[in-house]
Design goal:
Elements lengths: L1 H12 L6 E13 L9 E17 L4 E6 L6 E4 L13 H12 L7 E7 L9 H16 L6 H16 L6 H8 L4 E6 L5 E5 L5 E7 L11 H16 L12 H7 L6 H25 L3 H17 L6 H11 L4 E7 L6 E7 L3 H16 L4 E3 L8 E3 L3
Parallel strand pairs: 3-5
Antiparallel strand pairs: 1-2, 1-12, 2-5, 2-6, 3-4, 6-7, 8-10, 8-11, 9-10
Helix pairs in contact: 2-3, 2-4, 3-4, 3-5, 4-5, 6-8, 8-9, 10-11
The structure holds alpha-D-galactopyranose.
């Protein structure tokens, strides 16, 4: 794999004396804690064994060259023209990162880059955060900018907010930056305090199912949900001083929920508060190796995302409800922003084949779409790879 990429790199950019480096950033799957991050709540994602590779080399000129092994679009951009967005292209993610470094007063120098990813795009597995982190991590190291990983995570989120235009929270970038093999990342999105929780699946398997219904985060209802949560907070703030919905316990929310007159906005807030509680319970379940309780919490999470937060939709619901009919399925829910993309399932290993066959067939019959199934391991966060 790396050797093939090296060949593509040299074929396009030629050989010279500057050293070639290879970096990798994973995708992520969120086990539970959906639409809580931008509310200062808790999340529990894992980094995946698939992700984005970046081959990178300093150049002796003032151009940045972008090439992808996945997409036809390539670019050759002079350093003084990095500020312009290129509509609809993958290169906006690395461009967003360059712009953040420029804002921090860093001097950008010429370089040649080849990206190659095996995270399905637009499927809710953070292909974007994976590109952002692989870029920021690599450039920071190559040009010795001196940022630590938490600063790079924050900077990568800002690149997505400010350059790409999605008001995402920090979960994806954090999971991609600080994920750990066979661990889930328990993160408080307000304080950024985190713990890596051992996640031993033993006789169970993590299966990701892709609805293959495409969604674009920017033009989806994601930003609308962010705005609705802000509205809920405004109503609450008329009587109570809190900074984030994530500060409310279930009990307190039940007591004060009537200060939100709008029924839809109240349901949005109810999802956030109850989801936060489920994350705390999920961490306990993981620590006790109680996979069945974890599965129940995942199911409850999906149901709340469906009825209260309304971000699931026909395809995700079909995949989830068909999954739950199969013996050996411990939990099944949508993962990521929703509106399409993937579900995450915990399944007893011996039933995985049957699961894929039956759910695949029924999903096709009901929706006319072909589901795809992935069997990732839980991997480490962004890093440089040693190559020979
Ligand atoms: C997307 C965003 C995250 C998070 C999830 C929903 O993946 O990038 O910040 O809000 O949706 O939990």
């Amino acid at each position: 794999m790396i050797n093939e990429l090296k060949e593509i790199f040299y074929k396009n950019y030629g050989e010279n004396k500057n050293e070639l480096f290879v970096y990798f950033a994973p995708g992520r799957v969120n086990i539970i804690g959906e639409h809580t991050d931008y509310n200062g709540g808790f999340v529990l994602p894992c980094a995946l064994s698939f992700g984005t590779y970046l081959l990178i080399r300093k150049a002796n000129n003032s151009k940045i060259k972008f090439l992808s092994a996945n997409f036809d679009f390539s670019a050759n951009i002079p350093i003084n023209k990095l500020k312009k967005k290129i509509n609809g292209e993958w290169v906006n993610y690395p461009l967003g990162i360059f712009n953040q470094f420029i804002k921090k007063g860093k001097d950008i120098q010429g370089m040649e880059m080849l990206f190659s990813g095996n995270v399905p795009n637009g499927a809710g597995l953070s292909s974007s955060a994976s590109i952002e982190l692989v870029t920021s991590f690599a450039i920071n190291e190559l040009f010795e900018y001196g940022f630590d990983i938490i600063e790079l995570i924050k900077l990568s989120q800002k690149a997505e907010n400010e350059f790409v235009g999605v008001n995402c929270g920090i979960m994806d970038q954090f999971a991609v930056g600080k994920g750990k093999k066979n661990h889930a990342l328990f993160l408080n999105c307000e304080t950024l305090k985190y713990a890596q929780i051992p996640f031993n699946l033993n006789e169970y398997k993590l299966v990701i199912a892709n609805t293959n219904k495409k969604r674009g985060l920017t033009d989806s209802k994601y930003n609308e949900r962010v705005a609705e949560c802000k509205e809920a907070l405004k109503f609450i703030n008329k009587k109570f001083t809190i900074k984030n919905l994530g500060e409310l316990s279930l009990e307190t929310f039940e007591e004060i929920q009537d200060v939100i007159p709008d029924e839809v906005i109240r349901r949005r807030a109810e999802h956030v508060v109850s989801e936060d509680y489920r994350v705390l319970e999920a961490v306990k379940a993981m620590e006790n190796n109680d996979i069945k309780t974890l599965g129940k919490l995942m199911n409850a999470s999906h149901d709340s995302l469906k009825t209260n937060y309304e971000v699931t939709g026909f395809e995700l619901d079909t995949l989830v409800y068909e999954a739950r009919k199969i013996t050996g399925v411990i939990g099944s829910r949508m993962t990521g922003a929703g509106f399409g993309g993937c579900t995450v399932n915990i399944i007893k290993k011996i039933y995985v084949d049957e699961f894929c066959k039956k759910v695949g067939e029924r999903y096709k019959k009901i929706t006319g779409l072909n589901a795809e199934f992935y069997f990732p391991e839980i991997g480490d966060g962004v890093r440089r790879l040693v190559i020979d």
